[in-house]
Specification:
17 helices, alpha/beta, seven-stranded parallel β-sheet, Rossmann fold, 15% strand, 14 strands, 422 residues, globular
């Protein structure tokens, strides 16, 4: 089955490269460093490499504390962090800089993967969440590289898809030494698609171990004072196509009840920054882009965050947050970042990607879920009017995060065990 998969991959490569070129019209970064995806690098051969793969921004944010802890434990080792997307790449460079080597993950073709492993010679391969690449996994075993999937999660839909190709997925997972899952539900799904029962354990969610310094909080508060003075700031974060219109359509009604309201929109994908600005202006809203560096004027109604890597800061500068990807059927985004930044959390009905976290936050009074425009309006009016209610949401969210921390240490323990055998 892997031979068939590889043959099809070869046939698709011209179209995959053309897609990169096409995406480059909106995001030029996709046309840059494309040779890395075929494992051609400028880097010299490294030694004692600990390799971690994080697909995009969300996975990268979750893995940063782990990388820093491992660097402290293994100061003589070199660290390689790979991503798939340009936004993930930019975030790795912004946070870790020259402390790690960074390239794009190469395509899953045998000669490409062999070239990648020959250059970096990792002592261990650590894959975030659910990336399953049959040729890469097989090559790790052939090169005696212990392979693990950490912070692993698997939705019911993904599990259903993997079950349709057991001849490909089961042999791939047989090459994995450990699968460390976020929940018991994830653990059972990985076992169901072919992971060995003795090789799967629940370690918790690395995203709970996100911490921010008092200085970082102060920086966020300074943004509030300098850019949003006198405004009640409502941030809609990580929004997707068709989602911004929902909030823009109810904004006038809310503005009548909350005159000082400012709508801050943070689109999920950079290529949509200008489109969202055009949408807001077409609806006759006074709009400001963060990249201009100008403070929000008294007449500004919509403020679009078109900069990268500032989401946590902007959460901390807000009075209430709405986590995007949840009013459209995307599956939601991370609710823990606003929690650690001390801002009340609201999200929509589509939270399948974070189902357990969302349900537990609702059960502990750490967040609010809205299913319609009317519910969003009512919630916003209540949250604005009731300071004690806002404070209770923040307090409950902080307690919820603290109760669920510890995944990083559990993951490090397993990694140390594997590296001790090298």
């Amino acid at each position: 089955m892997r031979l068939l998969y590889t043959s099809l991959f070869y046939l698709l490569i011209p179209f995959i490269l053309l897609r990169l070129y096409w995406r480059g019209f909106k995001s030029p970064e996709y046309r840059q460093r494309w040779t890395e995806r075929l494992a051609f690098y400028q880097q010299k051969n490294l030694r004692d490499v600990i390799w971690i793969h994080a697909v995009s921004v969300g996975e990268a944010e979750a893995v940063f504390p782990l990388v820093k802890r491992l660097q402290a434990i293994y100061p003589s080792c070199n660290f390689l962090v790979t991503t798939t997307t340009p936004t993930g790449s930019a975030r790795v460079k912004a946070v870790l800089g020259t402390a790690v080597s960074h390239v794009y993950l190469p395509y899953d073709l045998p000669p490409v993967v062999k070239r990648f492993l020959a250059v970096f010679k990792p002592k261990i391969a650590i894959i975030m969440e659910k990336e399953i690449w049959p040729n890469l996994y097989a090559q790790c075993v052939e090169n005696n590289i212990p392979l693990m999937i950490i912070n692993a999660r698997l939705s019911a839909n993904s599990a259903k898809g993997y079950k349709k190709i057991p001849a490909l997925i089961r042999p791939a997972l047989a090459n994995v030494v450990w699968v460390l899952t976020q929940t018991e539900e994830d653990k059972q799904r990985f076992i169901d698609i072919g992971a060995g029962q003795d090789n799967v354990a629940v370690s918790g969610n690395l995203k709970f171990d996100l911490t921010v310094s008092p200085g970082f909080i102060q920086q966020a508060h300074k943004i509030k004072a300098d850019s949003f003075a006198g405004r009640f700031v409502w941030i809609i974060a990580s929004t997707h196509e068709h989602e911004e219109r929902i909030f823009l359509e109810i904004f006038p009604q809310l503005k009548k009840q909350i005159p000082e309201l400012l709508l801050v929109i943070v689109p999920r994908h950079p290529e949509r920054f200008t489109l969202v600005k055009q949408l807001a202006e077409s609806l006759q809203f006074q709009t400001c882009m963060r990249s201009t560096g100008q403070p929000c004027a008294a007449e500004t109604e919509v403020y679009i965050a078109d900069t990268m890597g500032e989401l946590k800061l902007l959460y901390g500068a807000a009075d209430v947050s709405f986590v995007g990807g949840s009013m459209v059927p995307v599956g939601g985004h991370n609710t823990l970042e606003p929690a650690v930044m001390g801002v009340p959390i609201v999200f929509g009905p589509h939270m399948i990607n974070f189902k357990e976290i969302a349900n537990n936050m609702l059960a502990t009074g750490a967040a609010i879920q809205c299913h319609s425009k009317e519910e969003i309006i009512n919630t916003m009016v209540q949250v604005h009017a009731d300071g004690e209610y806002r404070a209770s949401l923040v307090s409950n969210a902080n307690a919820f995060v603290g109760k669920n921390q510890g995944a990083t240490e559990k993951t490090i323990e397993i990694i140390q065990g594997l590296l001790s055998r090298q």
